[in-house]
Amino acid sequence: MYATKEAIIAKEHEKEIQPTIFFIDMRAYGKGFDAYYERAKNEYGVRYVRCAISRVVEDPRSKNLFITYLDNAGEIREEEFDLVVLSVGMTPSASTRELGKNLGIELDDYGFAKTDVLAPLATSRPGVYVCGVFQGPKDIPETVAQASGAAAAASEILAEVRGTMVSRKEYPEQKDVQEEAPRIGVFVCRCGNNIGGVVDVPSIKEYAGSLGNVVFADENLYTCSQDTQEKIKKAIEEHQLNRVVVASCSPRTHEPLFQETIREAGLNRYLFEMANIRDQCSWVHMNQKEEATSKARDLVRMAVANARLIRPLEEVNKGVIKRGLIIGGGLSGMTAALGLAEQGFEAILVEKEEELGGNLRRLYSTLEGKNIPKYLEEIKGRVLNHPRVQVFTGAQITDFSGYVGNFKTSLAVGPEKTTRELEHGVTLIATGGEELKSKEYLYGDDARVVTQLELERLLATNEKKADALKEVVMIQCVGSRNEERPYCSRVCCAEAVKNALTIKTLNPRARVTILYRDMRMYSLLEEHYARARKAGVRFLRYEEERQPEVAQRDGKLEVKVYNPILRENLSFYPDLLALSAATVPADTAELASMLKVPRTADGFFLEAHMKLRPVDFASEGIYLCGLAHSPKMIDESLSQAWATVSRACTILSKDQIQVGGVVSVVDPERCAACLTCVRVCPYNVPVINADGVAEIEVAMCQGCGICASECPGKAIKLQHFTDEQIMAKCDVLVDLSAGKVAH
């Protein structure tokens, strides 16, 4: 995936580059990775060649490099390249190994910190935790989630003394700029090549300096860097700035940082405005540099016009209900509930089924040989007997309202649908997923066709049946990596290898063949793949365009598959056919609508930011983990559950939180109680009060302005602006005389 990313970036920077990636298995196993791979092929023209390279030599005359390889047709090929980039593996450095030795923690054979699959954050030494690549090779989202999880594990030990050594941050007295004319400072960011490689940043800086009320303009390599933060503070002081505009990336990720910077310089944090000239400009117009520069000018002009009108705003303090609600009683949900409880907070665990456990109830062992039923009984016992955990099974959520620190949820519990009202400060979503029951390959029509989970149960509960198996075929990617479900289900390859090894252990004479598109045994799972090959498990690749065919012939199962290496059809007559079916999310459409949180096109919940906030929603105080987020292994679900505990504790550990700022306000004299604002608000904020007018709870309002824009009586406005200022702002944003509409 690193190679794919670099190939795409190379194409974005230089159209003439022709990237070729030589690979064995395409391991695009992360959330959204398969779509990224397809985009690289179809939109950027990245060429992929499946093979093993035999040699790389230099041409003594041209100094170019020749790569020799054997293609799928069995022909020896040689190609010439200007540059060869090696995708090398990850390994712990010598200093990291030394650190592990000095800490007295056990390392594995590769030098990574040795952990248990059922305790992925704990090292062999109590009180020492691990996260990131020192635990094993992994991508950024998993690393960030593990970091949060490790923080939760560490803070659990310290829960009793939480807050005893806190020193409150002191801010300078806030400057009163209400009566001052706007003095705006504009800071334009290059963001390395992300912006500077497309947009003419010096001209944007010059243009910004020519705009009205702008008294200072500057450009920076990285405006979010610590050095530039200090430059901004210094500029505020030297030039008496009372408004700050940053033209850079997304406010979604960096606005809080810049708001904090100007507050440290004595300005109200709401005297800040941001122009997104990266995501909304350079990234989407990378091949139109002149037009992108023109659009960047427009975005900066609008931000400056906006900055002229903004004024200081205040936030209000609201108490925090020190209790968490966890929706879903599978592995992730139970782990999160225990995590909150051990941190000293009450946890309410809600499960729609009558029994806790989720998919753990269908598993019997891990690849490493861990006893899952025993582990399930242990964790269930801890949950059910913990004094700070309240469990509702057979429960359905019927209503949800409130805001971070103060949520209210209604439940219908049991066959009688008894109503329970719950109040809580945070919400954790762990609704899980399930194995697809596909209609492909005679599943449901022939008892000899089973899913991998059904095969695992068979092997665990009926050894006599396993002893009788002579031939077993497994088909990978059933119901996934296709048009309907374009994602990788992540666990299927490991589950197939696990079951194949179990069969070979119970009956070494059995023939086991796995038909695959790509074996995605990533990170430390690779050793189990090698173990299966040594045990005699056969791995045969099939092509996406020529999938296996299954039929009944004379009472037997026949599996036909085209072998691209031999270039001929092979036939198998297995006693049992196991399908590695897709992992699909639980049906959460109604829940997502109720909680006002987004889902992906595949039905999984969508995090706020894949890398920076992998377990957060955009709505503050709501978090997600486990299969509700995407398909993942047990240790990954555990790490993510711990991560949500860490994020939730940032709210629950406070007695009060500040809310408000940019919010909508209602003019009761103009409100006609038409309910438009109630219908259009994505956060369920407006209500019609006893006086028959709309009322907005400041703590819940996100300041999106949708209700203000849709209100037919113009009875609602954003607190930042008066009616006259809103009209003036519209004149700036929409220049009809020039035939242009704002972006």
Question: What does this 3D model show about the protein?
Answer:
Helix content is 31%, strand content 23%. By secondary structure, it is of the alpha/beta class. Strand 21, helix 16 (526-534) and strand 22 (538-541) form a beta-alpha-beta unit. The chain is globular. Mean pLDDT is 92; it is low at 723-743.
Oligomeric state of this protein: single chain
**Major sheet attributes:** 5 strands, parallel
* Mean of pLDDT: 92
Question: Tally the helices: what do you get?
Answer: 21
Strand coverage percent: 15-25%
Strand line-up across the major sheet: 13-12-11-17-28
Main structural class: alpha/beta
Euclidean distance between termini CA atoms: 33 Å
Helix content: 25-40%
Unreliable stretches covering 5 or more consecutive residues: 723-743
How many strands in all? 33
Describe the global form.
Answer: globular
> C-alpha Rg, in Å?
29 Å
Main features:
single chain; 743 residues; 5-stranded parallel β-sheet
Please outline what is shown here.
The protein is of the alpha/beta class and 743 residues long.
What topology does this entry show?
Elements: H1 2-13, E1 20-23, H2 33-42, E2 47-50, E3 53-58, E4 65-70, E5 76-81, H3 94-103, H4 140-157, E6 184-189, H5 193-196, H6 201-210, E7 214-220, H7 226-238, E8 243-248, H8 251-264, E9 272-276, H9 278-282, H10 289-309, E10 315-319, E11 323-327, H11 331-342, E12 346-351, H12 372-385, E13 389-393, E14 395-403, E15 406-413, E16 418-424, E17 426-429, E18 433-435, E19 449-451, H13 452-461, H14 463-467, E20 471-478, H15 492-506, E21 511-516, H16 526-534, E22 538-541, E23 549-553, E24 556-563, E25 568-572, E26 576-581, E27 583-585, H17 589-595, E28 622-624, H18 634-652, E29 656-660, E30 664-666, H19 676-680, E31 687-688, E32 694-695, H20 706-710, E33 716-718, H21 723-733
Parallel strand pairs: 1-2, 6-7, 6-8, 8-9, 11-12, 11-17, 12-13, 17-28, 19-26, 20-21, 20-26, 21-22
Antiparallel strand pairs: 3-4, 4-5, 10-29, 14-15, 15-16, 18-27, 23-24, 24-25, 30-33, 31-32
Helix pairs in contact: 4-18, 6-10, 7-8, 10-21, 11-12, 11-18, 13-15, 15-16
